[in-house]
Design brief:
Two copies of one chain form a homodimer. Chain A is 44% helix and 17% strand. By secondary structure, chain A is α/β, with parallel strands linked by helices. In chain A, the strands form two sheets. In chain A, strands 2-1-3-4-5-11 form a six-stranded parallel sheet, sandwiched between helices. In chain A, helix 1 crosses helix 2 and helix 9 crosses helix 10. The first copy, chain A, is elongated. The first copy, chain A, starts with a helix and ends in a 5-residue tail after the last strand. Chains A and B meet through helix 3, helix 4, strand 2, helix 5 and helix 6 of A and helix 3, helix 4, strand 2, helix 5 and helix 6 of B. Chain A binds a DNA duplex through helix 1 and helix 3.
Chain lengths: 311, 311
Amino acid sequence: MTVSRALKTPERVSADTLQRVRDAVARTGYVSNGLAGGLRSARTLLVAALVPALRSHLYDATIESLGAALAADGYHLLLGQTEHSPQQEEDLVRAVLGRRPDGIVITGVRHSKGTRALLLASGIPVVELNDWTPTPIDMLVGFSHEQMGRDACGYLADKGHRRLAVIATDNERSQRRTESFVAAAKARRLTTPPVHVLSASTLHGGGRAGLAALLEHGPIDAVYCGSDMVALGVLTEARARGIEVPGTLAVLGSGDLDFAASTSPSLSSVRVDFARVGTLAARCITDRVAGNDGADTLVDVGFTIVERESA
Amino acid sequence: MTVSRALKTPERVSADTLQRVRDAVARTGYVSNGLAGGLRSARTLLVAALVPALRSHLYDATIESLGAALAADGYHLLLGQTEHSPQQEEDLVRAVLGRRPDGIVITGVRHSKGTRALLLASGIPVVELNDWTPTPIDMLVGFSHEQMGRDACGYLADKGHRRLAVIATDNERSQRRTESFVAAAKARRLTTPPVHVLSASTLHGGGRAGLAALLEHGPIDAVYCGSDMVALGVLTEARARGIEVPGTLAVLGSGDLDFAASTSPSLSSVRVDFARVGTLAARCITDRVAGNDGADTLVDVGFTIVERESA
DNA sequence: GTGAAAGCGCTAACAC
DNA sequence: GTGTTAGCGCTTTCAC
């Protein structure tokens, strides 16, 4: 008991005792067993984060800042990939809950009934990420994909572009963005935008191929791309074809990645502050664990359209 | 005890018992407590991975495949960021060992004495990553940065380029690559290559600025870049200045990222199979846990120089 | 195929 | 400021 105190609350132990404990720890290489501690105290200082996949690079900034913010409070991050499969997500949630994390961060707001039930029953803080719903499982840090698609369309239309097009990626949230982009175009009585969906992981090459495919169906004035890398591919293909950007073709990317500002022409992009998403998610959980209930538990981080040369 | 068997080794329980257990689990929402199980059995199905930082994107592919390969065997991945600080690395190792992981994966081969001691004393499988030494702590999956710098220089020199230059990033391994590039150039009696070191995180912009800075010191024939994104920035800056690539300036990137094949001109790049690094590291640990000692515990994954248009 | 006993290494709770 | 007791929820071991 005294050793436990010396290590966890050194101020509650005499200087002499503390020294003797530390000497012994150094001499023996003792490392406290967190499993036993967690079992007894019901606090593990563990937070699990579940993302669809790392390879999309969509979650890098979020995971980086989430991990860093948690580490600052002594928490560790357990990372799981659901591979966009609801079943795999549910299995992973179950397995991860077995480790009794102090909180869980999970991408999206559309989960299987089983996943919701498990999460609700666990009683731990849950933060859903990067989507929007008025009825989250618990807390939510995200933004509306419908609004994003609509605003992207509005931005391009307001610039005077009539013949719009979309190059999207193959997942549920991207699909909702695209649908709302198309709906917004219809509402403005524009030509129905043709949509090219990329299934592959080669984003830049997909952007090149996507523009080529879209042009076969007729001329277009502007393309909305699901990622900046795709937009960069579009820029490259346009240059290869002698199409002027933004003169003849406007290009709008997503993500505002580091290179967007320094390409030529520089890339206009829909920006989400993903690092902030991670930091906020971490705070949601640490605050709740610390007993500060209430507060902002539904945060819309929003997005901004960063205007540069390409659109 | 019967419940434990039903869940972990269903084949050793009667069909009737199994059914009753499963019914009860479903009815009550029972999730087995992995802390208690790990405490008793001394197996946690947890593997920790420590990387300098995620924001460099250098470890994305490795972590992705490491996590996926581990998940296939029922393991979970605990992710920690050391921020390039040996002290932070040591603290993190200590904290993580407290969770009694079944294995640990750690980037690099240069660690503090304390880190080595902790790892050695832990008795668990340790895999060091993405560097090379004849004397690893335990197992090693990596490659030689010295050889990479040397070969990059050889590649460019063999193409007939005399005035070489380097744009490197600001970390220890990159520095060793650069030093061996410069040494190789000297050995070939070429002009000592000027080196531009990027401290920032904006890789593409850094590439543009880096080329501009190098050109102020005089003309160059070829640039070796520490990342493909930097190389892409160099390509952009060269185009803006009317410098022909590869005619006047050859550009060699690193990483062979997805866009390298479809830029214009396409990018020659030093490629490392980072996904394989992750898969191999996972296997090192799962094999060892399963009792299959020996085998390949020092794997040189090597690298290849992918020849495309830019060099 | 099932069950009883014991203990993994901590910390909450309570003495003193 | 330090110590005693008990128990967190599993799984190892042994018995039947």
